Amino acid sequence: MVTTMRFQDKRVFITGAASGIGAATYELFRREGARVVGVDVNASDDLLHCDVADPESVTRAMKETVDGLGGLDICVNVAGINAMVSFEDMTLEVWQKILGVNVTGPMLVTKAALPHLRESRGNVVTVASISGMRAQPYFSAYGTSKAGLLNLMKSLAVELAADQVRVNCVCPGGVGALPSPDEAAQIPGLDGIDLSLLMRMQGVLPGVTEQADIAEAIAYLASDAARSVTGAALVVDRATVW
């Protein structure tokens, strides 16, 4: 198998790199020659600690990254959280936490990265969601956060165009299979949720979307192949023809 090297010596910062889409993206960029710093609230020997909702934590992580890499070419915002809960049961604490991580977090990270991206004429790729583009049951806080995130990044794409800094989003649908009714019945907190509403999110394409599929979409938008693309919301979703 021949590995392409789209990101040879590119300097990359990735949030949410400890698991899921973030981990898959971290590995893809490294495999294709990038010099990558991954951050997460769950630090490890390979990853820096960073709470994206904490301005001081973001500033420290970005400074350490830029000092170590000598600059920055690509900023990837993957870190995010969710809670499946009916609106009636939504608490202010959960609402504020989701918006803090999913909207304020990418704002803080992108703002910290911006001086370095201006210098390199780099780009930002942010993981939003189809939940920010259409209504989905039991995801009111998550959907609101992702809708705000999409608008934020589209606004930045226009604002930063003169600096030749591209800003794009990937909007995944469901990643992995939805739980069956029997499986969902064993998940704490899903009592009383109408699973038939969730089944409407099932795909028209067979199979499931994998984390690696989202990582590939991120890599495309970050690569020179997308040099004429900014302000995009690239949907990766088997469920709907958009």
TrEMBL record:
UniProt-listed Gene3D superfamilies: NAD(P)-binding Rossmann-like Domain (3.40.50.720)
CDD domains in alphabetical order: SDR_c
TM helices/strands, residue ranges: none
Lineage top rank: taxon: Bacteria
Keywords: Oxidoreductase
SUPFAM superfamilies per UniProt: NAD(P)-binding Rossmann-fold domains (SSF51735)
PANTHER family: 3-OXOACYL-[ACYL-CARRIER-PROTEIN] REDUCTASE (PTHR42760:SF133), SHORT-CHAIN DEHYDROGENASES/REDUCTASES FAMILY MEMBER (PTHR42760)
Protein family per UniProt: Belongs to the short-chain dehydrogenases/reductases (SDR) family.
This protein's name: SDR family oxidoreductase
High-level lineage: Bacteria, Bacillati, Actinomycetota, Actinomycetes, Kitasatosporales
